Each structure stands twice: as C-alpha cells, then as structure tokens.
C-alpha cells in the first residue's frame, strides 16, 4: 500500500527521502514522488520504480520535504495522480500533501472547492486535502490550524504529511485509521508510515494514535490528540534491524522469508520453552482474568491470516473444547451479528494495521465485546494497541507481499493459545502439557527438514509453469493449508488455483479434472488419510495429475499420474505448520518459472491499509 516519509533537518534531506521510499517499496506501489521546500515548492514525481524518481531528483536539495509511494485507489496510475499533491495551482504551489488512505467524501469536497475557484489536476481523492489546507491556511496563516480544520471536514481514513511554502521550518502530520509514526533525531525529525523508512536515520520512534495531529520542526515535536489537547506519546526504540530489510544471499524476500521460518518459529516460542510451561501471562497481565470469563472465541482476519484462523478453529475446539468461529474481517463488520460479551475476539494481522481487521475489531467493540486478543508481528501497531491482550509473533520484518513466516508463526501463536486455554479450563494434564511442549520443540527441526525438499519441489514446479489452473485438496486441519497453498500459487504465479476439502470433490469440482489439471493433495498420515486416498483415486480415474505431499510413514507410492513427495516425519497436531512449507516452495518456484515479480505481485500490496 502507499507509503509516506518526511524529514525536517539542518542537512539535505533528499537522500533520506529517497532511501526511505526505497525501504517502503516492499509494500507495493505504482508511482512515487517527493516535494521539498526552497524558495519554492519543488516537486518530482515518476510512475514506476523509486530508482526512476531518484534519477529525476538528481541535484535537488532541501532541509524539509515529504515523499510518497502510491498504490492507486482513486484515479489511474499516472504521474498526474502521483503524490505529493499541491495547491492552489501547479505553477505556484504553496501547499504540498502526501496521503495514505481514502477520503470518502472527496466528491462533495471537490464540488465545494471547485465552487470556491480551485482547479483539480488529478483524479485522486487526495487533491481535496491539498486545496482544503490551502483554503484554511489563507484564513488562519497557521499550518497547524489549517490542517486541524481540514481534517475536521474529512471522512474516511488518512495519514497525511503537509508542508507550506510560507513555513519552511514546520511540517504538520495527522492520522486516522492509517499508520503514521514520528522518528526522533538529534536536531532533526522524521515522519513515516512504516518504521523501515526512517531506520537509517533513527531508531527512536513515536507511534501516533488515531485522531492525532502533530507539528514537527527540526528542534521538536508537539502532538495533539483528537480533542486537540497537547498529549505525550510514548517513545519506543525500534528493534527492527536493517539487516532484516536486506536480501542477503537470497534472490527474493519471499525465498529469504521461507527459509527464515525455523528461526522465526524458535524465536516465537523462546519464552515458552524457557519457562517449560504454557503460561497464561504470555498473552498479557489480564489474560488469566479474561480467559476465565470467556465461553467462546471469534477469530477475525483477512487473507493468509484468515487461513491461520481457520486452522486454529480445529485446535481450539479439539484441544481447549471452546466453540470457535472464524470470519473474514471485511464481512463481519458489515453484517448484523449476534454479539456475545463472553466471547474472546481474536484478531490476526501481520502488520497490526490491516484496515479491514482493525475496523472489524472496532465494530465488535461497538457491539459490546470487551475481551480481545491481537496476534500480530509488529510491535506497538494499531490493532494490539486497541486490544486487551496481545501475543507478538517474532517472525521479524516480512517484506514479501506473499506472507510465509508470518503465517507459520501465527499458527504457533494460535496453537499456544489453544493449549493455554485448555490449561485454564482444567483440560490439560501435566503429561499432555509436556507432550505439547515437546511437539513445539520438535517443529523447528521438522520445518528445516521440510525446507530441504526444495530441489524436488523445484522439479515439480516445472509441471505447473504452463498450467492455467490448479486444484488443492486437504481434509480436516489441513484443509486451510490447502487454501493457503492455493492462495500462494495464485497471488505470486497468477495461476488460478482453488482449494477444496477433498470430500467435496465429487460435489462439483471433479468436473474440472482432466490431464491438464494439476491436483495438489495435502495428505499427512492422520485419521483422514484413507479417505483422502479414496478422493485421490477419483482424480486419478479422470486422468488428473496428482501431486501429493505425504508423510514419511504414509505408505504412498508414486505411480503413473501420481507424484509423491514425503515430508520427513509426522509432527502430530502441529502437522499444518510442516505441511505449509512445501506449498509455499511450490508457489515460489512456479512463479519463478512464470517470470512474475515474486515479491511484488501485480495489483497487490503489503499491509492492506485501505478498505
Ligand atoms: N487514495 C489515495 C491514496 C491511496 C492509498 O493510500 N493506497 O494505499 C490515492 O489513490 O492516491
């Protein structure tokens, strides 16, 4: 999604803006731009890569400026629509604005501003912000006031950063519904939508809250909350390492992140293993109290996180015996549901900023839900801050748009939740607790061994490169893994893929099966294995090509039309974590063969901060 970076300093900030924008590239974007102040507002914009913008910005220098990577929501991908947007005119810009989010009442504001004599040069919703700030600046001659008056007229979601020609020593920023943070330097300050954009300059950050407006100079920062009172926000020292944002020896971030999974998992379970017990406090100080009050769980999530939630339903119901439902966040928030104040709302979001999930949580809270738990990979992000409990996965920065290590560590977190709830509910014997701990200890090694299957999977991928469709089958707790496999394949290789519970095959999708339809089967050695084998026969009988991920002890043999890869050993209840590794690798290698942009698949973006 869009990215913002801004800087105000006593040195040339153009290299900081460019570096910041390159760090934001991973979020996915289609155009980029910067605006800086000298005797005038100077603006450079380019469609495509930040490298092109950098080339165009050669020779530009300033002590204050804002930059943006745009992922278009309103208006096509053109230089005219790229941010920053300016006002009152293109030739004589006095205000420059960058914006993430969507202004829902932009049509109404556009009509009003047109009547006031403002001309529009883009199709974006953002341009109304530039004109509104200019309009109010004319009246107040105070940039902070002008921004405050502007946002009081906006509906929708935004993170904005604004500079004004007449105020070369001030930048004003604001957020509602979209992430924004301030980076604190020594005699210089920064703003960004993502900490990666300011890390080369500072690690000291303040995360703004919804409704906050802040005024930045090189000497200091003043923050106002939604009631417009001056407010102190906590300073954090970011622990995101620059190395985690580099590719190192890998060709793609997705490849790097797939291979980082053993480390990500062991970091996520470190505290648990050190304690040698499932401790309720891992979820927060209030966890024991909240867990003792709940009678069910409602998981709200989107995309890959939703599939983590679907997997968790099996664990929560079988291990903790607690009724669990899982809903797509963007659906839940718009339907009339029946609230249950005794239900624990669990949100899952890698970034902690996923707008659909954040809004679903707010909706649940409005309905009277008071118990919420966030499972999240980014410290201090919006969703954990809005939740009563939090479990941080420790996957490290995930840059590839297709989520991999965030997913497996979410599964770990959800499994730990299921066992912890079972313990709280008196359903866990000491022997069973030790057995689950031992499963967790083993899973890191098993994932490493699954990664070693890569050469065989790369060979298989050759049979997918020329296909237009694929089916993924799984049963029980492995059905969500089949769904995740299909999602991975479609999002990065653009091969249309669908997942079905294997038992559903004969109720429709079998009609699609012929020799051109690869069918991937997740077939671990569990109670459903014999059923899955029968479902596979149905495919084989129709000439379908089967690609089966089985366990070492599944007694499967490859035969004509049946390809088999054995994951090294069965890891019991944690088997979904092991079985997702091969489907991630399959998608990755199929995408390489198709020559797609693996880390930035078309039309997609990381951290989905728009609706
Ligand atoms: N609505 C603005 C910004 C889009 C955005 O935040 N994308 O993530 C535009 O279309 O330019």
UniProtKB/TrEMBL annotation:
Protein task: Catalyzes the first step in hexosamine metabolism, converting fructose-6P into glucosamine-6P using glutamine as a nitrogen source.
Gene: glmS
GO molecular function terms listed in the Swiss-Prot or TrEMBL record: glutamine-fructose-6-phosphate transaminase (isomerizing) activity
UniProt-listed InterPro entries: GATase_2_dom, GFAT, GFAT_N, GlmS/AgaS_SIS, GlmS/FrlB_SIS, Ntn_hydrolases_N, SIS_dom, SIS_dom_sf
Subcellular location as annotated: Cytoplasm
Residue span(s) of domain SIS: 287-427, 460-601
Subunit note: Homodimer.
Catalytic activity: D-fructose 6-phosphate + L-glutamine = D-glucosamine 6-phosphate + L-glutamate
Pfam families: GATase_6, SIS
Organism domain of life: Bacteria
Name of the featured protein: Glutamine--fructose-6-phosphate aminotransferase [isomerizing]
